[in-house]
Amino acid sequence: MFERIIRLLSRYGTTFLGGLGTTLLLALISVAIGCVIGALVAIMRNGRVKVLRAIATTYVEIIRDTPLLLQLYFFYFMLPDILPQLKLSKFTCIAVALLINSGAYMAEIFRSGIQSIDRGQTEAARSLGLSSRQTMIRIILPQAFKNILPALCNEFVAVTKETSLASTFYVGDLMTQYQVISGKTYLVLEPLIIIGIIYFVITFTMSKLIAVLERRLKEDD
Asked: The CATH number of the domain where 158 resides is what?
């Protein structure tokens, strides 16, 4: 088995690397844009406008209470029908689904971060003449972001693993490459072992970096 794994790596090494690049790109897009969506949704949920609060709450609850695979199917088939003129690729449809999903979870992370800030700081900022918007942007969000940074990094790790579901649509991620290589070589276990090791190395490294980040943040406090 070990010899077959070595042969697979030497023959399909670039294929595995290509799958890793697609996986990380999907995760990065999902978390980066999801972070922006999450911050906006969290502000809406903590705001005073009932309509916006209801919309934000509905979005979060729908996304969090339905399976990710179902959402991937939904956006994969829905987006090309809604926006046929854009001729969206499979990768784009899946990326949109992942970032919408990530945005809902990010919203809860941001909301907890905002609520962790002492209300006295808001009252002090308002007494100095800052508007609600200025207080949120200049006072609350910077502190909240620092508090939730480890949680955001953990979300990136989670999304990296969740991208494996994208292989259902053959978008070129690691699990898609597994299916391609397995189909060419008629090997099942060996490619899976390689894919598993790659996932483990990436997520384990990220987890260790997050732990270092958490320690440094505690030291700064």
From this structure: 1.10.3720.10
